[in-house]
Amino acid sequence: MLPRTAALLLATLLATPVAYAEVHEVKMLNRGADGAMLYEPDHLHIAQGDTVRFLPTQAGHNAASLPELLPAGARAFKSKLNQTFEHTFDVPGLYGIQCIPHLAMGMVMLIQVGERSHTALPDTLPARAKARLAAQLQQLEAGQ
């Protein structure tokens, strides 16, 4: 009886589709198609469990979570300058990402994990960063 049960279990496992998490790449740039000091793309809508790989395409950048835009229960992160960095997003919600040396210049991005959440942007951010985040939020809400 045991070999038959094991064979049925194996057949079930082999027939079950496997969901794979995706890896999304984001370039950190001094200059890109949409201006200076930016992430490209500047916003992502990803699935829970997906990973984002931040690539230091040009020197002087990092990727760090914005404490003001971090879902409850999510862990903060900060990469080193000029280093490729990967972060897996396990907690659903809206994440703000900053380049610490260039926050005042507006080097920020948004990552929506899972379903859209309605989050207000913090007033404490520099004006340029807040304006870029507002534009990115608008694009995420429009499904772009």
Provide key terms for this protein.
globular; 4-stranded mixed sheet; 2 helices; 144 residues; single chain; Immunoglobulin-like; alpha/beta
Can you walk through the features of this model?
Residues 27-113 form the Blue (type 1) copper domain. The structure is a single chain. By secondary structure, the chain is of the alpha/beta class. It has one domain (23-143): Immunoglobulin-like. Helices cover 20% and strands 30% of the residues. The protein is built from two helices and eight strands, in the order αββββββββα. It has helices spanning 2-15, 127-141; strands at residues 23-32, 35-40, 43-46, 51-55, 64-65, 85-88, 93-98, 108-113. The chain starts with a helix and ends with a helix. The mean pLDDT is 89.
How can the largest sheet be summarized?
Answer: 4 strands, mixed
Order of helices and strands: HEEEEEEEEH
Weakly predicted, low-confidence segments = none
The fourth-level CATH homologous superfamily is Cupredoxins -  blue copper proteins
Tell me, rounded to a whole number, the average pLDDT: 89
Summarize the structure.
This is Pseudoazurin. It comes from Pseudomonas mosselii. 20% of the residues lie in helices and 30% in strands.
Question: How does the SSE layout of this entry go?
Answer:
Layout: H1 2-15, E1 23-32, E2 35-40, E3 43-46, E4 51-55, E5 64-65, E6 85-88, E7 93-98, E8 108-113, H2 127-141
Parallel strand pairs: 1-4, 3-8
Antiparallel strand pairs: 1-2, 4-6, 5-7, 7-8
InterPro entries: Amicyanin/Pseudoazurin, BlueCu_1, Copper_blue_Plastocyanin, Cupredoxin, Pseudoazurin
Keywords: Copper, Electron transport, Metal-binding, Periplasm, Signal, Transport
Pfam family, one: Copper-bind
